[in-house]
Amino acid sequence: MNQLFAIAALAALLLSAVTAQAQSLNFSGNGDAPIEVFADDGLEWHQERLVFIARGNARAVRGEVTVHADELRAYYREKANGGTDIWRLDALGKVRIVSPNGKAFGGKAVYDVDNAILVLSEGKLQLVTPTDVITADKQLEFWEAKQIAVARGNAFAVRGEKRLRADVLAAYFRPDEKGEPRVYRVEAFDRVKVETGSEVAISERAVYNVESGIATLIGAVKIIRDANVLNGCRAEINLNTGVSTLHSCKDRVRGLIQPGKKKEKR
Fold this sequence. Notes:
It is a single chain. The protein is mainly beta. The protein is built from 1 helix and 18 strands. A hairpin with a 4-residue loop joins strand 10 (139-143) and strand 11.
């Protein structure tokens, strides 16, 4: 389940990319790196609507991060001192955000600057890094102030043979000694399914402690290995050692163990 480190990459990737759009449109500060905006159908400044629009195969480039979309929009408001302030940034249609850390895909990306919330939605939502793939049917979100990344709607996190599926995946992260965001806790909600290659575990909820490598599954837990099935209320799966421990609630832990069939001698 270490693949969920990729959710932190999603946060950094999308946030830096959308922030780059604001700088490139020159409504909100200058930044340290130069920004370029390209569009096949031209750039528009609608002063009456307080929006800047780049249309047709639009892309904003800042350093090593590029935002591609059919259309890019920056909404701003005018300050009393004569300056301007970006409050919302949109990337619309065939959104693709590219950085050295990976790529993100979707139909629409919206960054609420005031609340520091980024939402990628519509179409097939996907984050691809060199080691991980995160997908969701509804939304991929980053809440900067709360330091939370969320994948909603049939969310999958995949690394190699390890797969985690749930209706909602939430990753909590904090800076490491170098100041880089690192996931320390992952929560999975509703119709949770963990696959490790040799084992499948199902539950209503799961909590993964990244430092210990232990995933705690809660509610209607079922662990399946080959034809063997164990049922209980709570389970702890150590993803580093592969050892699973099943706990009961009021009832006893129940299991169905299927002995292997002996081969007939010929």
